[in-house]
Design a protein that fits this description.
heterodimer, A: 55 residues, mainly alpha, B: 183 residues
Chain lengths: 55, 183
């Protein structure tokens, strides 16, 4: 099947420039690094429930 | 980058930090509320943090560190034109996190890491808040960790990385798209 409808989408409003691309990646990076804190909360509960014993 | 504008690099960094701090706090509080649900086995189980007011400053400290660290990574990536490595670089904070968190379970680590590694410091502070115990070294439970020193080290790390960020922001130059094709 040919994707003919793609030709009909006007690309006048799609301005994916390098700066926007970097900005999106940067916010992604920040949110991923913040999730490192969430991992630590999960680990604390993991230890608290003695699913793993600290030697 | 800021040559023709009135915006200073320090104000630029401050606005980034404040914006992401709001997002960070929302994400962290949501995670803190949701993660205990995964561990809930019976109805009477309650693993929520005991004191929310002490949790918020800890999360602010942690968020500020992670924001400054990822800003540094992003600026270095842009500066050295390594955008093709972006997917790997995105995971550097998490990979570092897993390395430090696995120290608890796999090996003995020196006490100095409690103060120098922000991942372990944040872990200690969160541990203290969630379990309501004084901060201790994980490998050697008798050894107390100084709370002031942990907080001081986290503030120092954030400040040092922020200063490097501001210096690096000043050194980013706009490259014209036609010119960058030639590079």
């Amino acid at each position: 099947m040919e994707l003919g409808f793609l030709k009909e989408i006007p690309f006048t409003n799609a301005k994916i420039i390098y700066q926007n691309y970097v900005a999106v990646w940067y916010s992604d990076l920040v949110i991923l690094s913040l999730s490192a804190l969430a991992v630590s909360i999960a680990f604390i509960l993991f230890v608290k429930l003695e699913l793993y014993h600290i030697c | 980058m800021l040559r023709y504008s009135k915006l200073k690099a320090s104000m630029y960094a401050l606005s980034i930090y404040l914006g992401f701090l709001v997002i960070g706090l929302i994400i962290e509080l949501l995670m803190t509320a949701v993660i205990p649900l995964f561990f809930k086995q019976r109805d009477r189980d309650n693993y929520n943090p005991s004191e929310i007011p002490t949790l918020i400053p800890i999360l602010i400290l942690g968020s500020l560190f992670f924001i400054s660290f990822s800003t540094l990574l992003a600026i270095l990536t842009i500066k050295f034109k390594e955008m093709r490595m972006q997917n790997l670089i995105s995971f550097i904070p998490l990979i570092l996190g897993f390395i430090f968190y696995s120290l608890f379970t796999s090996s003995e680590y020196p006490n100095i890491l409690d103060y120098t590694s922000l991942y372990l410091s944040m872990m200690l502070l969160l541990y203290m808040d969630i379990l309501e115990i004084p901060p201790i070294n994980f490998q050697n439970a008798r050894e107390r960790v100084s709370l002031d020193a942990v907080i001081l080290s986290s503030v120092l790390w954030t400040l040092i990385i922020t200063i490097i960020d501001i210096i690096m922001i000043r050194r980013i130059y706009f490259t014209n798209i036609e010119e960058s094709r030639q590079l």
